[in-house]
Amino acid sequence: MGRRSVEKDLRLDGRIVQIRLSPAVDNTGEMIGCVIEWKDRTEDQRNAALIAAINANQVRIEYDLDGRIVDANDNFRKLIKGQFSDASLCSIATMFAGNLEGMKQERRLPQK
């Protein structure tokens, strides 16, 4: 193990568990044992797989509390034929151009 931590993901009974072994040293730096930590990463892995599937197949846009785009996936960038810098200029209000329910009629786009 040496003086570095070692991590390994293991599959146990349908779960993904991350094990970390770290050296325990005294005040002189002499190794006196090791610390074992474990974390159930099953939900983290499922969420990562879900986000990857969304990014591969759908448009994903993340907004801040003011309605400005803070992140968008490549599918959105392809849709607008631009870069993230182009997308970051957009907001919910400008994207929907006043066509949200409850907006004043004079601000709505004409209906076909």
Describe the structure.
By secondary structure, the chain is an alpha+beta fold. The chain has four helices and five strands. It has helices at 42-57, 74-79, 84-87, 92-96, and strands at 6-12, 15-25, 31-40, 61-63, 69-72. The strands form two sheets. The protein has a three-stranded antiparallel β-sheet, with helices on one face. Strands 4-5 form a two-stranded antiparallel ribbon. Strand 4 (61-63) and strand 5 (69-72) form a beta hairpin. The longest helix has 16 residues, at 42-57. The protein is elongated, with a radius of gyration of 24 Å. The model has no long low-confidence stretch (mean pLDDT 81).
| Strand segment count | 5
Rg for CA atoms: 24 Å
User: pLDDT average, as an integer?
Assistant: 81
End-to-end Cα distance: 69 Å
Q: Quick one: overall form?
A: elongated
- Report the total helices: 4
Unreliable residue runs: none
| N-to-C SSE string, H for helix and E for strand | EEEHEEHHH
Structural class: alpha+beta
Strand content: 25-35%
User: How would a crystallographer describe the biggest sheet?
Assistant: 3 strands, antiparallel
In spatial order, strands of the major sheet run 1-2-3
* Helix content class: 25-40%
